[in-house]
């Protein structure tokens, strides 16, 4: 069994008297997308900065790519790429020149740097704009170029800190496709985001950080099942069938619809259908509602999502 790409045990960090991280534990397997969620100021960016060797922790046992970020910062930097919410793109240079600059910083031979730049410009759909100054790029193009620059050194672990903030929905989904392609190539992604739909769509596992602690961790589906309110909605065309189903299953009725509490799992759905079948009760339609990550976030942190807060 391979070692995890990222391993964190007892990570602590304070700024003066303010405790930001109070002994958090995280494990990120290789080739997976791990999302860290939390309210604004919860410590998400601090966590990324510590793992990326940009901030020194107060305590904890950390491994990134098998190396200690404190004792072996150069080895960690060789293994990782970091793309933050503030672009590292030089707007006075062309897209191609930005990539060639990164190749020079990685001490790559000129011919290899040009080859990698051409490959990334093609892969990120930037070839037509390659020789235009980056200051003329749209927000989506700038984010794609920023991520392409991160890939010049061939990192196997990438930290994406709020990578789609400010992008329109189309550009955001384009970034999602690129992230999925990276993972398909075996890259590990550590993602922080304020968009819960983004975490739901992309992440294999999610951790929720609040007041310096990890308050929940699991797959998106596992986290949704932590929150009450899921139900199976059954619609009947016959009032007698509706009454019989309500007596059999419980739940609440509204007009021709019966809502039966459920965790949204396959076993729960199968149980309801089996009981209806044995009683010869046939609904006209059926749908399953499970709480979404907005519900999870509100329940665990007592606050609305950062995305909704910023929209007020």
UniProtKB/TrEMBL annotation:
Gene3D superfamilies listed in its UniProt record: P-loop containing nucleotide triphosphate hydrolases
Alphabetical GO biological process terms: daunorubicin transport; doxorubicin transport; response to antibiotic; transmembrane transport
Enzyme Commission number, as recorded: 3.6.3.-
Predominant cellular place of this UniProt entry's protein: membrane
Keywords: Antibiotic resistance, ATP-binding, Cell membrane, Hydrolase, Membrane, Nucleotide-binding, Translocase, Transport
Pfam families: ABC_tran (PF00005)
Membrane-topology descriptor: Peripheral membrane protein
Subcellular location: Cell membrane
A GO cellular-component term linked to this record: plasma membrane
Transmembrane portions of the chain: none
ABC transporter domain: residues covered: 6-236
GO molecular function, one term: ATP binding
Family: Belongs to the ABC transporter superfamily. Drug exporter-1 (DrugE1) (TC 3.A.1.105) family.
Family annotation (NCBIfam families): drrA
PANTHER family associated with the record: ABC TRANSPORTER ATP-BINDING PROTEIN, DOXORUBICIN RESISTANCE ATP-BINDING PROTEIN DRRA
Protein name in UniProt: Daunorubicin/doxorubicin resistance ATP-binding protein DrrA
Origin species: Nocardia africana
Organism phylogeny: Bacteria, Bacillati, Actinomycetota, Actinomycetes, Mycobacteriales
Gene name in the database record: drrA_1
């Amino acid at each position: 069994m391979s070692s995890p790409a990222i391993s964190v045990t007892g990570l602590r960090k304070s700024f003066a008297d303010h405790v930001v991280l109070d002994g958090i534990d995280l494990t990120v397997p290789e080739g997976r997308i791990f999302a860290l969620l939390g309210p604004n100021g919860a410590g998400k960016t601090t966590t990324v900065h510590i793992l990326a060797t940009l901030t020194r922790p107060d305590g904890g046992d950390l491994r990134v790519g098998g190396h200690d970020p404190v004792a072996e910062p150069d080895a960690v930097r060789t293994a990782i790429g970091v793309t933050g919410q503030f672009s590292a793109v030089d707007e006075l240079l062309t897209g191609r020149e930005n990539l060639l600059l990164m190749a020079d910083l990685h001490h790559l031979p000129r011919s290899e740097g040009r080859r990698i730049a051409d490959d990334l410009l093609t892969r990120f759909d930037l070839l037509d704009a390659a020789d235009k100054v980056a200051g003329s790029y749209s927000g989506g193009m700038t984010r794609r170029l920023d991520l392409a620059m991160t890939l010049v050194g061939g990192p196997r672990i990438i930290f994406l800190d709020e990578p789609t903030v400010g992008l329109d929905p189309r550009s955001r989904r384009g970034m999602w496709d690129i992230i999925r392609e990276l993972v398909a190539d075996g890259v590990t992604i550590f993602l922080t985001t304020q968009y819960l739909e983004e975490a739901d769509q992309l992440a294999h596992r999610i951790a929720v950080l609040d007041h310096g602690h990890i308050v929940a961790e699991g797959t998106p589906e596992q986290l949704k099942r932590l929150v009450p309110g899921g139900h199976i909605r059954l619609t009947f065309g016959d009032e007698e069938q509706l009454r019989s189903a309500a007596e059999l299953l419980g739940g609440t009725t509204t007009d021709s619809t019966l809502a039966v509490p459920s965790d949204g799992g396959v076993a729960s759905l199968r149980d309801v259908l089996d009981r209806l079948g044995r009683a010869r009760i046939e609904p006209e339609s059926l749908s399953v509602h499970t709480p979404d990550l907005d519900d999870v976030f509100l329940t665990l942190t007592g606050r609305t999502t950062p995305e909704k807060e910023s929209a007020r």
